[in-house]
Amino acid sequence: MYSLLAVVIPYWGQSLLRVLGGLVAVLLPAGTIVYVFLFKMMSFMQSRLGPMEAGPYGSMQLFAEVGKWLQKEDIQPHNADKRIFRMAPIIVLMSTFLLVAVVPFGPDAWFTNFETGVFYALAVSSISVLGILMAGWSSANKYSLLGGLRAAGQLIAYELPMVLAVMGVVIQAGTMNLQQIVLAQNAGSIFGTDIVGNPYVLTQFVGFVVFMIAVQAELTQAPFDMPIAESELVSGYMTEYSGFRFLIFFIGEFATAGVFAMIASTLFLGGWGVPFSWFGWTSMDSVANWMNVAGPLIVFTKMMVLVFLIMWIRFSYPRFREDQLQRFAWKVLIPISLANIMVTAVLKVAF
Amino acid sequence: MVAQNIGFAIIAIIMVIGALRVVTTSNVVHAALWLVVVLAGAAAQYILLAAEFVAITQVLVYIGAVMVLFLFGTMLTRSRIGRDSGLNNSYAKLGIPVAVVLFVAMALALSKSFGTEKLPSDGSLVTTQQISDQIFGPYLLPFWALSFVLLAAVIGAIVLARKD
Question: What is the pTM of this model?
């Protein structure tokens, strides 16, 4: 962004652009996901129309919903620990904003270019557990507490396969910097063919599957939605939340889905890049400037594809039981991802 | 006075307040949450020292795992909302001189050995690659020993927790 489209921007301008860009990168995907998938795709899969009145095909429905939530009364349970009750949704949303900071959107269009980008993403994504535990405890409600504890157990269990699945990508790319991982995928080649570069979804397919399952669990989307299981726990840790505090949780849920999908597309689908051989680019410096504009659109498209997968599974499968969930993580996903790391390391040395 | 010093001062004040609240608050969960503030402050100080890898590890291990387990445990066992009397036991007063002695000893040791060291100002910082080269090179044996101790602890926990 030092010379975005050949215009030199001063440092304060860059910082302002990054803050605004962060807001857009979190809220725009969240709104799109809610409308396209939660309203329309879910309705289609259930043979109904979904919202149709507000705007063409109900496309303004989301604004109406947000307006409804904002004007609702701010209810806090009498026995609740009020200060922590108010802090909890903000911490959940904060971890989403911290997470988007490492996603690269173009050769110069990034928020931060961390040396250890992948590691940072995995670390800050675990902060949301704190917010969920705080919400569950401070509500002074047994259902909330049960939901919070279930969420904590689930998120800890599925963080491990997620970290291990990413290891394969890190070994293959030889770096933890997300920008370098994008470069390695788009400038790479599979057995000398560089027509599609080397997107790791092809060479790290096992890692991709394990990562997407772990993402599904981290987002507490069905079939991993025991923390908010509405038929058992009312609404889990969100039971006592209403009005704009519920809205923050709601935005947090779908924004995190979008951001995780962006990270998955960066790790496995080539991120903002197109295969460099198409345009004869060889390194990061030779990438044309217009990729700073095309890059975000490419990331957005790939994100929508991955969120479609997440939502498709969400609307198709029934809920796991708590013991099945833990057994699946510890006895299936972790051994598979460990084996994946070993095979990747051996092949990396062999080739 | 450079900007880093101001940042250090602000974070240090927050950390000291948080640390005092950990021991003075009358609710176990509040104490754990103040501890999160202290640990997050430590991570921020590592960032100021340009130790990116250590800072992220601090967040991943302490905030993401240790504190979550802490909260999980306290919420399962004694998760009352509001004031909780009887948190201090009879050794509470004894802790103050121990803490002072530990603080003085650590401060002396640190200022003796690192008091005159300065970060390189030309941007040549320790990278993650250098850290891993060190761990998997000269320090491989201590690393293995540590892993072995952790493995033993995990197996011990399973043996203790299993009833059958």
Answer: 0.86
